[in-house]
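Supplementary notes for students who missed Thursday's class. We covered one full example, reproduced here. Read the sequence, then the structure, then the short commentary at the end.
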Amino acid sequence: MNSKRLRMLIGFTCLALILVAIPLMAACAKPAPVTLKFGSWMPEGHITSVLARWWMEEVTERTNGQVQFEAFYAGVLGKGKDQPDNIKAGLFDFGYFLAAYDPAKTPLLTLPYAPWVPSKRGEVRLRAFWEVTELPAAKAELAAWDAMCLIPAQGMGDVYYLYTVDKPVYTLDDIAGLKVRSVGRMAEALALAGASPVAMPMPDVYDALSKGTLDAGALATSPFLGYKLYEVLNYMSTVLLGSGSPMVIMKLSVFNNLPADIQKVIMDVSYEAIEWFIKAEADQEKEFDDIVKQYGITVIEFPAEEQKRYEDLAVMPVMEEWIKDMEDQGLPGREAFWTFRDAAEKYEK
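Structure (token representation):
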């Protein structure tokens, strides 16, 4: 073989090797997909679980499959009150968290579960509370559990109203003596009004109401529908008891180790969840109205003068006590309250 043919053969061989190597190198350069675990104590059919699936699908699509998810519902990875401990232990990477289940873990973030309602509009509460979660002290509370806020889910569930099995509530005096499932400072306000608050995980409430262990529940729309409590409740009184719903948190160390482009997608989708909430709440309201009619639940409009009595007797004293408790712990309770209040007024307009 002459030198010219040898050079041509070597050239063709090199070209062939390059053509084979290019896709192999591209495949090697593409990072392996990241799989994140989602954990919630709520059932798969709950509206919050529907949101979580929307969020996961959006992140997977926008990262071109680079982020995949495994979802675990109904407390498979732990009870609701243990969510901070479990995310810190690495049992899951993101999930729901309800500060009122164990107030000592993140006291400042219990503000939405106070009996004060800054707005009846869910989107206003969500945007307002987002500003609270941006306070350095609020971030520090979650960081202590290796967590960060993804979605301050104040949009879901409307406000908390009083639902009863047998006793209709027309006035403040009718609240006295009721055994009411309630959480956080809402429970303290109900106690000042003469009720007997009972702390109980949501999955146990249906049986407790049906067996008479509970007389009533301070409930938002989401658990009322999600746990089918309309099957055992007969009355709804529109006394404003509070607001609040679980926020979505993520393991901080996991988030920090993700590439910057994936971090951006996660935060973009989380912020866009506000619009998802608005639509979901409109759908929920229609579903709620249909269920109330179907099951013959009596809706009682709590008189404005009785609401004022309740606020004077129970709400404002509890709010002042909440602020004092936070300040005594070295936390900016008054700043958090003013931030929530002022932001709600801003977004209401």
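Commentary. The mean pLDDT is 90. The CA atoms of residues 218 and 344 lie 23 Å apart. If anything here is unclear, bring it to office hours.
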